[in-house]
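Researcher: We're teaching a course module on how sequence relates to structure. For the next exercise, students receive a sequence and then see the predicted structure as tokens, so they can try to spot secondary structure elements on their own. Here is the exercise chain.
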Amino acid sequence: IELVLSNADARKLYDEGRALELQGNVAAANRIYAKVTNLSPNYVYGWSSLANTQIVLGNLDTAERSYSKAISLCKASISASEQASESGAAGFGRAKCNDLYLLLLNRGSLRLNTGQPKEALKDLSQASVLRGRPDALVAQNLARAKELNGLYAQADRDYTLAISMTSNEVSPFWLRSALVKLQLGDVKGGMDVMKRVENKFPNVPEVRAAYATFLAATDKLPEAQDKFLSLPSGQQEKYVDANYLKNTVSWPPAAAKQLEQVTSSAAKNQPAQASALAEIRRE
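Model: And here is the predicted structure for the students to work with:
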């Protein structure tokens, strides 16, 4: 297992790939990293760097395989180091892979976006344990995995932790935190988060739809309808579609149900749109 490249040609190529990646030439870096893995197939960071570029290029399946190879090598390095340490002096100075948590975080985050919530939760739970201290990036991804697996109370705790560590910078994942709070019945807490999200991202369609949902949840249905109808018609049609809410944006059931009330009322008050919106629901 290699943590530092011993092959001079591979080392030169890897440095070239890093430079290309930093310059934004991801496709060229991807080709270079592929050569590195051919020359030094046991180099952990050749595979992880290749995976990073594969994600940017949209090659998610191959990226998962590359991350898995890097994880396997990293685990083998740790195992070899531990075995050497147990044998006494023979293990003195043996390097071991210290980035397993990061590799698991990357693969887990990828799996969140490829329809593998259970596998993502396993990776991200391990990453959290290995990290050994609070980490905003780990917490928000672990929260998302728990949310997708229906573990809403646990997801809420992790989202809250991540927000507490990034409270001065509103991020898109805050929307997920608000929706989870709504699922748990904490409408006020969710609305407090949602207001900050809406203030930061007022023109994002999902934010408008979610804000309409919270307005309805706080008994402000007319305002909720107005907010929903401020969406472009094409976006309105998406958020009327139950399949879109469940499988594309993956809203929790309570939020989806609340938004259905908003869209039903909006359709009744907009006769020209009612037929089209109703047709989408039937589909």
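Model: If you want an answer key for the exercise: The mean pLDDT is 92. The two ends are 53 Å apart (CA to CA).
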